[in-house]
């Protein structure tokens, strides 16, 4: 099992970050994400919480031995559930891989909360775990590859989302100033 | 705006996304503003939920029927079914501070 975590602040108000969240892709810095689909969305009429289920389609170079050993293809799908809670000003996102999930799971948790009027904290964890009943060396190799891929995507994800937020709110400020 | 996993659904998806994004922007900041007043909060949430349905409901129905067909065609529906059983995620999950096991 591998555990990953990181945290930092975005220099934008919480509401701006959450409005921007739906516009993160397509993104030249995250070119591995090629599709985003909404499968379910509910607005709770009492709490105002919006729950959204999405599927992200990714295309990423996969080592030949993984394709040979586990099957699958370079197209991978991830299921993501998000909760936007305006009362508690909290957004929680959980993502789990669909592809190769019979062999290993990568469960990611993200949370956005305001730290001040103009700053939003981002916390992210991920656990990568091979399921038991597979050959040990292959399981370790698959885990390692998933961790590397996750870390690489987490790194570009931050840069990519910073660009989107910067561009979105910069443009609006410019329009408002005219 | 991101494409759908099915080329045929992309236009329907983008129409729905555009509708949601416009509604969401009008929703979020007032929702935060009334968060401490329970009565106004509930009136607002209910009214906005209905408004979302009225504005984007039809676009959603078309997009949904397209994407569900595509999920089946690509064999993603079985993986989804299993994932939903394993992690229903009906409630928000706090970010764990350490590994679960």
Automatic annotation (TrEMBL), chain A:
GO cellular component: mitochondrial intermembrane space
Short name of any one Pfam family annotated for the protein: PRELI
Protein name: MSF1-domain-containing protein
Residue span(s) of domain PRELI/MSF1: 1-173
Species name: Cylindrobasidium torrendii FP15055 ss-10
PANTHER family the record matches: MSF1/PX19 RELATED
TrEMBL record, chain B:
Keyword Membrane: no
Classification via Pfam families: UPF0203
Residue ranges of the TM segments: none
GO MF, one example: phosphatidic acid transfer activity
Biological process, per Gene Ontology: phospholipid translocation
One term under GO cellular component: nucleus
Alphabetical UniProt keywords: Disulfide bond
The keyword Protein transport appears for this protein: no
InterPro entries (UniProt xref): MDM35_apoptosis
Protein family (similarity comment): Belongs to the TRIAP1/MDM35 family.
PANTHER family linked to this entry: TP53-REGULATED INHIBITOR OF APOPTOSIS 1 (PTHR46403:SF1)
UniProt name for this protein: Uncharacterized protein
């Amino acid at each position: 099992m591998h555990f990953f975590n990181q945290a930092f602040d975005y220099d934008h108000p919480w509401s701006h970050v959450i409005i921007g969240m739906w516009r993160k892709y397509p993104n030249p810095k995250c070119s591995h994400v090629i599709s985003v689909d909404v499968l379910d969305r509910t607005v709770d009429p009492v709490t105002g919480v919006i729950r959204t289920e999405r599927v992200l389609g990714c295309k990423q170079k996969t080592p030949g031995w993984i394709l040979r050993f586990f099957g699958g293809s370079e197209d991978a799908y991830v299921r993501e559930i998000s909760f936007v809670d305006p009362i508690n000003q909290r957004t929680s996102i959980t993502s789990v891989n669909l592809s190769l999930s019979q062999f290993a799971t990568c469960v990611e948790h993200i949370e956005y909360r305001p730290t001040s009027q103009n700053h939003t904290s981002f916390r992210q964890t991920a656990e990568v775990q091979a399921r038991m009943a597979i050959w040990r060396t292959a399981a370790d190799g698959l885990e390692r590859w998933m961790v590397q891929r996750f870390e690489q995507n987490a790194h570009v994800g931050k840069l990519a989302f910073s660009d989107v937020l910067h561009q979105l709110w910069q443009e609006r400020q410019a329009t408002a100033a005219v | 705006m991101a494409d759908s996993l099915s080329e045929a659904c992309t236009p329907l998806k983008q129409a729905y996304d555009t509708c949601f994004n416009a509604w969401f922007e009008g929703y979020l900041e007032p929702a935060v503003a009334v968060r401490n007043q329970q009565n106004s909060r509930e009136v607002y949430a209910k009214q906005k939920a209905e408004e979302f349905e009225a504005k984007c409901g039809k676009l959603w129905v078309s997009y949904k029927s397209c994407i569900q067909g595509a999920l089946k065609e690509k064999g993603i529906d079985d993986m989804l079914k299993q994932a939903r059983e394993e992690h229903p995620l009906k409630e928000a999950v706090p970010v764990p501070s350490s590994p679960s096991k």
